[in-house]
Each structure stands twice: as structure tokens, then as C-alpha cells.
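User:
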Amino acid sequence: MNHGSAALILGYRADERDASRHRSADQHPYIAAAKADYGLSKRTHLYMQFGFAKSNNRSQQGLTGYETNIVPDANQFGAGIGIAHYL
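Assistant: Predicted structure:
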């Protein structure tokens, strides 16, 4: 990423049911995510990322996918901010 350049990436995924459990078809879990990058120089950039996972009707959808260690119907929110420098 070059100095002064910016990028924004948005993502969304929705399912009819929780794929790991194959339960009822009315679960409708989804994930929404966003990531933004800003180039400070040729090799250094700032980044921010956010994600939200919504679970319904006993789904175990999390930010990293379907997991058995996620409490059914629990929503998840994650965020990160940082700086990356490539040598």
C-alpha cells in the first residue's frame, strides 16, 4: 500500500441454518465485517477491523465460523487496530 492510499473492505455472510449442527432452517445466523487500511509509507500501514456475528434459535455462529464452544444464541463482537511494517 502506498503512502496516502486507503482501502475499505466490507463483508457479509448469512446462512439459513447453523451448518455445524444442521438444526432447524429458521436460525438465520450471519456475520458482518469491515476492514480499513491506510498507507503511511511504502512499507507501513495502519489498519482497523471490526466484526459481528449474530446467532439465532440455538445457532453457534461465531466470528471464526461455527464452533461447539460458543454458547448457543450468543452474539460476538470483535475489533482490532494496529500498525504493520514490512521489512
